[in-house]
Each structure stands twice: as C-alpha cells, then as structure tokens.
UniProtKB/TrEMBL annotation:
Its main location: membrane. It comes from Ulvibacter antarcticus. It is found in: Cell membrane. It holds the Pfam family MS_channel_1st. The chain crosses the membrane at residues 40-63, 84-103, 109-127. InterPro entries: LSM_dom_sf, MS_channel_1st, MS_channel_C, MscS-like_channel, MscS_beta-dom_sf, MscS_channel_2nd, MscS_channel_C_sf, MscS_channel_TM-2. This is Mechanosensitive ion channel-like protein. The keyword Phosphoprotein does not apply. Residues 201-282 form the Mechanosensitive ion channel MscS C-terminal domain.
Length: 307
C-alpha cells in the first residue's frame, strides 16, 4: 500500500510538476529541423537573464575587491572601465545564448573580430591612455598637487582621470596630458619624494673681484628672501673661470618649486643692488678689433701722364 502511494507521488512530481515546468521552459519558437533547427524558448531567455544577473554580480564583486583600498575619488574613476567590461561580458553571453539556440554565430564572430581589430588600431592611443591611467592610480606615481615638467612646461597636477591628467601652468593655463606619456616618456616630478627642491641663480663678476666678498654678498641676497628655507642652508659655488667673468652660483632650497621663478627674480634684484652698493661689477663680453692699414702705391700710368 505504501509503495503504491510512493509511486503515485513520484508519478505526480515527475509527470505533472516537472513535466509542466519542462513544457513551460520549452515553450517558444522552433524553426527548421535537424542540424539547422533553431529553438528560441522561455528557458533560453531565462538563462540569458540569469547570466546577465550573475555577470553583473561578479563584476561588481571584482570591482569592490579591486578598489577596496582606494579612496572614493579613485573608485569612481574605475566605474567607466567596469561598465565597458560589463558590456563586453553581455555581448559574450548573447553570442553563447545564440549558439545554444542553434544559430550559427561563426559569421558574426568573424565579422566582430575584424571590427575589433580595426577598432583596436584606431583607438590604440585611447587604450594606452586608459592603461596608463590605471597604472598611475595603482602605483601612486603621480598625485594631485605634484609639480611636473613635461615638454619644457612646468605645471601643478589638479586632476587625474583614466584617460588624461590636467595640470595648471605657472601662467594659469590648463595643460591636458594624455596618460600614456607618463609611461612612455621621461617626466620630471619635482615633488615625488618630498616638496623641498634645490634651485640656483648664476652670476658672473669681473676678473680681479674679491671672491670672498662676492660669496658673502650672494649668501646675503638669499638670507632674508621670502620662500627660501633656512634649513638646509644656502651655499655658493665658484663654478668656473669664464671668458669674460668669474662664474658663481648661489644655491638654495624652497618648498614651493611652482613659485620659484618669482623667488629667483627677487634674488636677482637683490644681487644687482648689493653688487652696486659694494662696488662689484658684472662684466659683459668685450672684443678687441685691430685694423691694419697699408699705404696705397701710386699708379705708374698716372705718373707718366703728369710728365
């Protein structure tokens, strides 16, 4: 008796419940026959939706794992990257679904491959910029506030994006730098290790000048200059014996290299004033020109005519 009840329940579950679910999942459109049969069913559509949900969840989890140690600003920069990856994943899911439905996707894949190769060549620098931006954010080789020199221009970094970095120059102009330049070219970062940099001002004095006096005057010119650090102490170098002058440099340290042209200008004003007050002359190149003259010989023909 019990065995009959069990068999009846099994038949109900197998035939009625699972049978009804199977019929529901297999409901749809069926085209062709044999190897060329195409089946677009409710089950296939549910599989597609389920694949989309799973892919979105996995990508979101990977993004959270990848950016867990970043601040909110850097995390937001990766949203567009993961959106692009999500769209690529969706395309792969669609092609897989079409293949399961019996549709030959080989022509689509071949056309997509050719399109992607052409697109990749056309957008090569764009991808380089994005990869460069990812490297910059991950290894912290460049930070907002850093002072960099690129192509002879000095600027303070004000924004780092995935594709470009923006910097403001000393004359308040915005420079937009593609990120691939930071991984393919040599970039000077004045503040990578610390904000203190060493600067210098060079000057020449006339031969015969008191070099010790010149040294003291150069040190005095930077002693009370605003922006020049007291420690490390400024110092003077006697650089060379020039063609027309004795060449000196006064070296000093600042903590704002972005403003060093103004500081150097003030120091030059001070040097000129101190040299004038103390009788130290700044020479300029001089050249001696020697003219050699020869007496003009009297023309013999003219002499004969006179005779």
């Amino acid at each position: 008796m019990q065995e009959n009840v069990t068999e009846q329940i099994k038949e109900v579950v197998t035939d009625d419940i699972w049978g009804g679910i199977r019929e529901f999942l297999e409901f749809g459109f069926h085209f062709g026959s044999g190897n060329k049969e195409i089946n677009i069913t409710v089950g296939l559509l549910i599989l597609v939706l389920f694949s989309f949900v799973v892919a979105s969840f996995l990508l979101k989890w990977i993004r959270m794992l990848f950016t867990r140690k970043m601040d909110a600003t850097d995390k937001n920069k990766f949203i567009s990257v993961f959106k692009f990856i999500k769209y690529i994943t969706y395309v792969i899911v669609v092609f897989a679904t079409l293949s399961l439905a019996g549709i030959n996707v080989t022509p689509f894949l071949a056309a997509s491959a050719a399109l992607l190769v052409g697109l990749g060549l056309a957008l090569q620098e764009l991808f380089q910029d994005i990869i460069g931006g990812i490297f910059i954010i991950l290894d912290k080789s460049l930070l907002v506030g850093d002072i960099v020199e690129i192509n002879g221009k000095v600027g303070r970094v004000i924004e780092i994006k995935l594709r470009t970095t923006r910097a403001i120059t000393r004359d308040d102009k915005i420079v937009i730098i593609p990120n691939h330049k930071f991984i393919t070219e040599t970039i000077y970062n004045y503040t990578q290790n610390h904000r203190t940099t060493r600067e210098s001002v060079s000057v020449g004095v006339a031969y015969g000048s008191d070099t010790e006096k010149v040294k003291n005057l150069l040190l005095k010119s930077v002693e009370n200059q605003k922006g020049v650090l007291k420690s490390p102490k400024p110092f003077v170098l006697f650089e060379d014996f020039g063609d027309s002058s004795l060449n000196f440099s006064v070296l000093f340290f600042v903590n704002d290299s972005f403003a060093d042209p103004r500081i150097k200008s003030e120091i030059r004003f001070s040097i000129d004033s101190l040299f004038r007050e103390n009788g130290v002359s700044i020479p300029f190149p001089q050249r001696d020109v020697h003219l050699f003259t020869q007496p003009v010989k009297e023309d013999s023909s003219n002499s004969m005519l006179e005779d």
